Amino acid sequence: MQLDSGAVAEGRVTRVTDFGAFIQFDNGETGLVHISQIAHSFVRNIHDHVHEGDTVDVKVLGRDERGRLDLSIKELLEEPEEIPRPRAIGRQSPQFEAKLRSFMRDAKERTTAGGKKPTTPTKRKK
């Protein structure tokens, strides 16, 4: 079996890490599906998508400078009309923002020491 760029092949997941899944093929070659190539949506935990021992279809994207296979599962999936984005964090409460502004203003006043730069102690010669 020749695994050239653009080829689609079936392989077995041999190892899952935080950054991707390693896939082994019948010919003995192994490649990596990077976490960004697992799904069209944001993948927070790769273990939600693949597990060791799973059989998956992958597309060969190419080889890196050291000859290792660069693979994708996402390329074989139908692209959704709108890619879901991670949920944004809402605004902080007005009380928190007021306290933060007060803290920053006080910190700035303390560091400028009334407009003067803080001095550092000098060593005396003996």
Give an account of the 3D structure.
- The chain is an alpha+beta fold and 126 residues long.
- Strands 1-2-3-5-4 form a five-stranded mixed beta barrel.
Number of helices: 1
Widest sheet, order of strands: 1-2-3-5-4
Q: Give me the strand/helix succession.
A: EEEEEH
Oligomer: single chain
Let me know the number of strands: 5
Q: Work out the helicity level.
A: 10-25%
Shape descriptor: elongated
Structural class: alpha+beta
CATH homologous superfamily of the domain at 8-76 - what is it? Nucleic acid-binding proteins
Could you say what the CATH topology of the domain at 8-76 is called?
OB fold (Dihydrolipoamide Acetyltransferase, E2P)
CATH architecture descriptor of the domain at 8-76: Beta Barrel
Text of the CATH class of the domain at 8-76: Mainly Beta
Average pLDDT, rounded to a whole number, is: 84
Protein name: S1 RNA-binding domain-containing protein
InterPro entries: NA-bd_OB-fold, Ribos_protein_bS1-like, S1_domain
Biased composition (Basic and acidic residues): 101-111
Domain S1 motif: 6-74
Outline of the structure:
By secondary structure, the chain is α+β, with helices and mostly antiparallel strands. It has one helix and five strands, in the order E-E-E-E-E-H.
Short descriptors:
126 residues, alpha+beta, OB fold (Dihydrolipoamide Acetyltransferase, E2P), five-stranded mixed β-barrel, 1 helix, 15% helix, 25% strand, elongated, Ribos_protein_bS1-like, S1_domain, S1 RNA-binding domain-containing protein, NA-bd_OB-fold
